[in-house]
Amino acid sequence: MRIVGYIENPTFKITIMHMNLRYAVKFENEGIEQTYKIRESENIKNVEDVKALVDKDILDQITILFSKMELTRLKMINKNINDFEDFEEII
Asked: What 8-state DSSP symbol labels residue 44?
């Protein structure tokens, strides 16, 4: 897979990759990633076509999913922190 483009965004790093007649659009936000794969077709022939798919509505949905993913990540981290409380206190 090779990087073929980027989409400028103030919140997310958005990378477009291409391999084997497929594009992958990767959204990154503070250690969390979402990747969507799109097959080349009559309507999706190049990077500009892929960029056109990432509109405001899609970015709003990506933002909602990142919020949910961040909550899950925090629950996972907090669960691990709470497990350490079982140790006896050493003075």
From this structure: -
Q: Dihedral of the CA atoms 31, 34, 39, 44 (nearest 10)?
A: -90
User: Residue 69: helix, strand or coil by DSSP?
Assistant: helix
Confirm if 28 and 45 have CB atoms less than 8 A apart: no
pTM score, whole prediction = 0.82
Give the mean pLDDT of the chain: 91
> Averaged over 29-41, what is the pLDDT?
95
Q: What is the per-residue pLDDT across 36-58, written as a single tens digit (0 to 9) for each?
A: 999 999 999 999 999 999 999 99
What are the DSSP calls for 18-37, one per residue?
A: EETTEEEEEEEETTEEEEEE
Please report, for the chain, the start and end positions of each structural domain, with discontinuous segments joined by +.
2-85
> CATH class for domain 2-85?
alpha beta
